[in-house]
Amino acid sequence: MNKTVKKQTFHKIRFLLLAVIMLFTYDYLSAQTTGKLAGRVVDENGQPLIGTNVIVLETTAGASTDLDGYYSIINLRAGTYKIKFQYIGYQSKVYENVRITSDQTTQLNVTLTPEAVQGQEVVVVAQRPIVNFNETSSVVSVNKEEIKNLPLQSLNEIVNLQAGVIDGHFRGGRIGEVQYQVDGVSVVNPYDNSSTLTLDKSILEEVQVISGTFDAKYGQAMSGVVNAVLRSGGDRFQFSGEIYGGDYFTTDTKRYPHNNTYNPTGIRNLQLTLSGPTGISNTSFLISGRRFLDDGYLFGVRKFLPTDKNNFEQKIFNPTGDNKLVPMQYYKEWSGQFKLTNKSIPNVELSYQATGNLTKRSYYNHYFRLDPDGIKENTTKSLSHGLSFTHTLSTSMFYKINLRQNYFNYSDYKYENLYDPRYLEAGQPKGDPNYEDGAFLQGVDLSRFKQKTISYILKGDFTWQANRIHLLEAGFEGQYSEITFGSPGFIVTTNVNGVEILQPRENIPRVPGIQTYFPKQMAAYLQDRIELGDLIVRAGLRFEYFDPHAKIPSDLSNPANSIQGAPKSFLKRTTIKTALAPRLGLSFPLTSSSSVYFSYGHFYQLPGLGLLYNNADYSILDELQAGGISYGVMGNPDLNPEFTIQYEAGYKQAIGNNFGAEISFFYKDIRDLLGVEFVSTYTAAEYARFTNVDFGNVYGFTISLTQRNFGNISTTLDYTLQYAQGNSSDPRETANRAAAGKDARPRTIFFDWDQRHTLNATVLYNLPDDFSISAIFKLGTGTPYTPEIGTGFGADLETNTGRKPTYFVVDLRGEKYFHIGALRISVFARAFNLFNQDFLNGFVFASTGSPDYTLTPEAQRAQLTDPSRFYMPRRIEFGITFGSK
Question: Are strands 110-111 and 34-42 parallel, antiparallel or unpaired?
């Protein structure tokens, strides 16, 4: 074992030991996957029934009422339960379909009557409250029953349907400002702050989306939290599956070539889930697998092959392709989940869980439309797995320890082997500007990139219901990551004896290849949830710690230590970053059916670490003073966390049991965003460098209306008005403006994703065990773009002063249910983008604000024939689901 490997191994062991010590030094708690059941039991006269047994059937959980008739049961995993209330001399009651939501309190107050006949029992089907008054911010919890009835398939589709969320942007924040968790543990890739997993609805028990302020237990996020609670096995063997196929279909052949025929195998999905006892005492399992393939709606025609040899000087072209249609935006996925749970030890639950994806996909490149075999393919391998240990110390106290490894491996190249002879045989892509508007007629994509992250997470949580009023929570989390990224070799043009040829090179001077870094992150929090009748207070404090474990120049004015006579510069360690983030939320009743809430918090998040570490070797600036060399924006491993202060206030109103309304006002003060500064050297030369200089603010309100079970019809409606603005939409924007000779000084503009008005609606007509039909409606005004009044320098107007067109999208789903013995079967059909809306905040021509036409058609002929500028066409799918009852 060499010294580098030994050193890395030592750092991992030291970090884990430190995390374990801190884990058992703090009191922890949390329940991002579990919720609480609480309420009061009284007799017909409203007098408390002391000592009533409250039993969660088919589990070991339960409680007894206190002197005032109150009870509480913590550590209930999100899902539906049967709750039995039993008191001597009184008729027992069983409430079915009681929904427990993660990190929330479900209230169930019960009145028992004297027993007329011994052993008689009353069964009541519980109904979820139309409005949850226990929340102090905007929180939406969507359970699996609600998900399965809507035209939704993936976690991202579920999230984007929520108020305040627009294509992954939470209330005006940048992409990458959301904490994604699976069963309460982060699955975020610190390289770019994106989720490492793609989750299908078949494995989801519940999805919790927090778009407002959030508790101190959540960190490394500025805009929101998504917590996916996955399904678990039980004591009864069950199975379920889903098979469907479909295709994209439209008669609009001008915008969507090759999509006017329907191929039911253009999209294929096969999914199967098995769960139940293993045969080992008190041990259950769940295993789920999915195979999904989508040919997409963007195609090329194989007129040329990558190895064709054309004479571009004499305009002699030699196509040897077979002229077949080739999918150029395909997606292929294997995904699965495995969970094993053991409860053999009294009051202890031990589980192992693994969730993974293997995907292969290509992205459409219009220039390769006649040489489609020349496009490259990217592959993603991701796995999140680990152990979870839960120990219930008493009916009011438990703790949980999670040890998790998140593995993410992304590769993006045509051929894996740098020395693959097919690279040189095909060569670089070439085309003729006068032949098919410059389409490539030979060659392959030569670019190569790879990114791998391995993160080890140790998380401890402890929960204590100190008394009827206070639920105390605290926790600790440590994360050690190995982040590798860069180009795994280069295919470059080299001059040999006056002839330009391609050669593979593992390294290029001044161009970094594969780089590896080992950052460390830690956090601890303490929180109190106060439930004083209908008055709810959630107060907490979070501590954040980050060590980038890198080096930077000690003197940025002499970054490469190459300026003669200037003070010497040397490499020094980056500083450790810490932050304290207070959080406060409260909700109090106005009447028995209405309440108001307010929340406030400080939220810190590190930018994607790829931006810290990429291009962070300042030694390449040794010729900066000579000028004429472009170095791009230098990375900065010494960046501070980005910072947001959020405020939110809202009002909730329930009208009967079937109608609820909520209005929420929000404001976000965004500071220390990642941006660019220009650093001057001692010779007055300048270079660009990432730093915390960008800023912004977002304000607006959301209105949400919910109607349920009115003649088997349920509907939801939400509207968002939002103003999102700051000095730049992209961290590199300042540098790009400076390079283009434009004014790079800070100014306030609307962000690229600032969608002023957004309306989402769902309608569901459901006859249980018979049939259902549902629809999703989405209406939105356009996001900004920068108009231009001509061509050339200075032709564009002020940034983002134009608006793209409004869009309206409808998704539809219908399902019919059948029962054959112990088997339940359904057939379904669904259509996404039913009315073939062709535009949704995509590309527009700067001269017109339209995706269809431009004032300079000759100069933009290629863009006018590019179908990828349009939103996906109508997608129609047919399928069948099956499972045990």
Answer: parallel
- Class of CATH domain 31-125: mainly beta
Numbered ranges of CATH 2.60.40.4130 in the chain: 31-125
CB 32 within 8 A of CB 216: no
Instruction: Provide the Cα torsion 15, 17, 21, 24; round to 10°.
Output: 110
- Written as six digits, the tokens of 884 are 């045990």
Q: Which single residue is written with the structure tokens 């010494």?
A: 638
Q: Looking up tokens 């030994």, which residue turns up?
A: 6
Rg, the chain, Cα only? 29
The rounded average pLDDT for each run of 10 residues, N- to C-terminus, in the chain (885 residues) is: 46 44 37 83 93 91 92 91 92 92 90 79 82 88 91 93 91 93 94 95 93 92 94 91 97 94 96 95 95 97 96 93 96 97 94 97 97 97 97 93 97 96 94 94 96 97 93 95 96 81 88 92 96 90 96 94 90 95 94 93 94 91 75 92 96 91 96 92 90 95 91 94 94 82 82 96 94 96 89 70 96 95 94 96 94 92 94 97 93
- φ, ψ of residue 769 to 5 degrees: the values are 65, 15
Has this prediction a pTM greater than 0.85? yes
Single-letter code of the amino acid located at 698 = V
Residue 53 burial by CB count (10 A; 0-12/13-18/19+): exposed, middle or buried? middle
Distance CA 46, CA 65 (A): 14
Per the DSSP assignment, residues forming a β-bridge with 90 are 114
Cβ–Cβ under 8 Å, residues 634 and 687:
yes
Opening angle at CA 135, ends 158 and 104, nearest 5:
75
In sequence order, which residues have a C-beta less than 8 Å from that of residue 52 and are 6 or more positions away? 41, 64, 65, 69, 71, 85, 86, 87, 112
Distance CA 812, CA 716 (A): 15
